[in-house]
Amino acid sequence: MLVHIVMFKFKEENKKANIIQAKQMLENLMGAIPSLRSMDVGVNFVEADRAMDLSIIAVFESKEGLDSYDAHPEHQKVVTFIKSVVEYSKAADYNRE
To answer: DSSP assignment, residue 97?
Structure first.
């Protein structure tokens, strides 16, 4: 299994609404993308300099599954929206043994 983690820092403008919309869009990918086995989407509640605003943990059976997810048109719609409302993001991918 491959685990894909992404954390997002949102721009201040319309921050709360954009976080809610991004969360809903990400959650809607479950069932829409066959290679996506599971996804946890969480909104941060702790105020700290190093805190990120929204995080996802997605699980795929393989690197090919992640690649398929990344290229999927529904995922690309989410990417387009998120890129327009975040300052930056960080990601990590690893194999779960």
So the answer is: -
Query: 95: phi > 0 → left, psi -120 to 50 → alpha, else beta; which?
Result: beta
5, 57 contact by CB (below 8 A): yes
Q: Which amino acid is at 50?
A: R
8-17, long-range: CB within 8 Å, 24+ apart, which pairs?
8/52, 8/53, 8/54, 8/55, 8/82, 8/86, 8/88, 8/89, 9/52, 9/53, 9/86, 9/87, 9/88, 9/89, 10/53, 10/54, 10/85, 10/86, 10/87, 11/85, 11/86, 11/87, 14/85, 15/53
Q: In the chain, where are the structural domains located? A: 2-95
**Does pLDDT of 97 surpass 80?**
no
Average pLDDT, the chain: 97
CATH architecture label of 2-95: 2-Layer Sandwich (3.30)
